[in-house]
From TrEMBL:
Keywords: GTPase activation. This is Rab-GAP TBC domain-containing protein. GO terms for cellular component: endoplasmic reticulum membrane. The keyword Isomerase does not apply. It comes from Leptosia nina. GO terms for biological process: endoplasmic reticulum to Golgi vesicle-mediated transport. The keyword Cell membrane does not apply.
Amino acid sequence: MDPYNTDEDCVNKCNLNGSPVLDRMSNDLNHTKNIDDIATPSELNFDQEFDYEEPEITEKKKEIEQCLKNPDIVNVDKWQSFARSKAGLISDEYRKVIWPLLVGVTLEELTDPPSLDELSTHPEYNQVVLDVNRSLKRFPPGIPYEQRVALQDQLTVLILRVIIKYPHLKYYQGYHDVAITLLLVCGDRASFPLLCRLSYGPTAPLAPFMQLTMQPTQHLLNYMLPVVRRADDRLAECLDKSGVGTMFALPWYLTWFGHSLNRYSDVVRLYDYFLCAPPLFPVYVTAAIVLHRAPQVFSCDADMAMMHCLLSRLPDDLPFEDILVVAQKLYEENDPTDLEPEVAALERREEEQRKLEEERMRRRRAGRVVPRAPLSSRLARYLPAPLRRAAPRRTILAITAALLAVYVYYRPDIFRMHPNEDK
C-alpha cells in the first residue's frame, strides 16, 4: 500500500534506482568499512536544531545526567517522567540510552546484525530497498556518500530482521520512517530489539499496521473524530460536512509523524512521548492537531479535496509541547473504551454510505446498458448498401461468412500467435 506521496524527485536527483549494495558498487568504492565506523548515532544526529536555554531545562539536563550514571537503579517511571515533561529527553545523546529502557530492552538483546547479503533473498527485500531509497529526506542533510550508503544498508537490514523474526507481520510502506528514527538515535544494535517491541505483542503500537488488511488501522484512526466532536462539536460538523474523513491523517499515524514533519527535532520529541504512552495516543495527538488548526478549517470551503489538502500538510511551526499537553488532557477525558459506541456508530454510517454509493453506481451503470443488436444487423454494416436493403438475414450471414473466409485465406498472419505471446 502507498498511503502517501513519495519523494521521487529527491530519489531521482540522487540516482538511487536499486539496491544500496549495487549503488555502492556502481560508484567503484574500492574499500569497505565497518558500518558502525562509518555511521555512528553521534555522527548522524541533528542536535544542532535543539536550543533549550530555559533554567528548568538546564536543571532537567543535570538530573538526567545524574540518573544516567547509574541507569540500572533508576525506575522506569523516572525515565517516563523525563520523556513526557517539557522538551522530552532533550538530546539524542540521552535518547540512545533511555529509549531502549522505556520499552524494556535488555543488554542481552543487543546483538550484532547480519550482513545485508544474508537477507537479500527475502521476498520483501526489493520493496524494502525501494522504500529505503525513498526516505532520503529523513537522512542528515549533506551526509557524505559513504555514510548515506552505510545508513541505507543498516536501515534495510533492520527492517528485514524484524519481519524475518515475525513472519506473520506484514511490512507496510511507512514502516521505514519509524525504523530510521530509531536507527538514527540508537544505532543498529539497540534499534532492532526496540523496533521488535513496537511491532510485536498485544500492546505493540505498530502491530495493527502490520496485519493483512488496513481495516485494524482504519478502525483505530476512527477514534479521532469522536474525540474532536467531544471537544468542539462545530469543528466536527465542519469536517463531517466536507466528507474529509480520516485518511488525511493516515501517514501521520502509520509513521508516528516521521514522514510528515520536516523538523527532526519535532519527530524525536514526539517519539519521546509515544514510547511511554498508550498505543492509541498518536490518534489523540492527531485530534489535538486538528483542534489546533480549527480556524483554518473553518475558513476552508466544505469541499473534500480542499479540506484534505489543507489538513494533510502539517505546518512547520506547530507548538508540539502545547499539543502534547492537549492530547494528554483529551486522553484523560475520553478513554478509548468510552468512545467505542461512537466509533461503532460512525463505522455503521460509513458502511451504509458505502452501500448506498455502490447501489447508486450499479443503477447508473444499469441505466446506460444498451441491448446489443442481433448478429445479422451488426454484420450487415460491413456489406454494400444495396445488399443490406435487399438481402434477408440468412443471406447476410452467409455472405459475411464467405467474405471472412476469403480474408483469412489471404491474410492468415493475423490469426497466428505472435512469437513473444504466452502460449
